[in-house]
Amino acid sequence: MNDLYSLCQLIKSHPLFNVQRDAILGLFYSLKIRQQLDPEGLLQALKFHQPELYEAIQKNHALFKKHCEDSLKLKMNGIHLVCYGEELYPASCYLMTDPPLTLSYRGSPAWLSDKALAVVGSREPCFESIQWMEKEFAPFCEKERPCVVSGGARGIDQKSHSVALRKSLPTVVVLPSGLENIYPESLKEWLHAIYENGGCVLSEYAYEQRMHKHLFHHRNRLIAALGKATLLVEARKRSGTLITAHQSLNLGRPVWIVPGHPLDPHFSGSLELVMEGAQIVRDAQDLSMLITAEMNDVKASPAGIVKQESLLHYR
């Protein structure tokens, strides 16, 4: 066995993975620290710590062979595959309660940028929000050159991606589907520009996975993790955008809110977050000040320290 990604696919498909997720991820992390994260090292760790899972893998040679063949085809088609613990795996994902075991992407690993900014908002934004994106967010992008992370949905997501591309910036599109079934389909027209500007289309789902409604909220936690901060432009109450913002706060990441009138239902969720302590941003100058302060803050997140120490228990 010499394909870590294919081995991970076997592990993900086994019922024990959901039951013993933290322990299994702890093995991955300890192997990463010891620079022994390879198929042989992982199998030996599973044999000692997860014998039932190890035995199941040993008995599934045919399925493993199929996973290896599928992985090879993906690589030949320009798909990059990343496993938990590998060098390109997003460091911020180690702070998540349910981090993806594997990721696949086409393009460049733009999430490694020190200025990755998640941008979320309504799918049906009001005119003022779109106007703010042009008058304030676009100049901010031109000056600070961030990597814009969003979900590719219509509305604020696509507006943020389009501004980034217009300013020749990398942008990361986090899909609620596999790379074979890009959603929404209109994004296919953007792919060349995304790749040309050093960005990527990223997914944690199987290559052939189609979009499902429940995957949107699941996907949003990854958007929250990939941004050093989250900019929320417009959100109603009980919206997916609000969920993403709360996930950012749970990860210890700052959330920056474009405010609205308290009687405007488009901003009711946004104003709730302000009451919970999120930072208001008025314009490009505020954004520049906040992102500069965030980049200068090199203190380790307490949540990150606790998470990593717990994982190291499995060394």
Question: What is the gist of this entry?
Answer:
This protein is of the alpha/beta class.
Topology:
Blueprint: H1 4-13, H2 15-19, H3 21-33, H4 39-49, H5 51-58, H6 61-76, E1 80-83, E2 102-107, E3 116-120, H7 127-144, E4 147-150, H8 156-166, E5 171-174, H9 191-196, E6 200-203, H10 213-226, E7 229-232, H11 240-250, E8 255-257, H12 268-275, E9 279-280, H13 284-296, H14 302-311
Parallel strand pairs: 3-4, 3-7, 4-5, 5-6, 7-8, 8-9
Antiparallel strand pairs: 1-2, 2-6
Helix pairs in contact: 1-6, 3-4, 4-5, 7-8, 7-13, 10-11
Descriptive tags:
DNA-protecting protein DprA, DprA, 49% helix, 315 residues, nine-stranded mixed sheet, alpha/beta, 11% strand, Rossmann fold, DrpA_SLOG, 2 domains
Secondary structure tally, helices: 14
> What is the fold-level CATH name, i.e. the topology of the largest domain?
Rossmann fold
Outline type: elongated
The largest β sheet comes out as:
9 strands, mixed
**Helix percentage:** 40-55%
Largest sheet: spatial strand order:
1-2-6-5-4-3-7-8-9
Domain Smf/DprA SLOG: 81-289
InterPro entries: DprA, DrpA_SLOG
Protein name: DNA-protecting protein DprA
Family: Belongs to the DprA/Smf family.
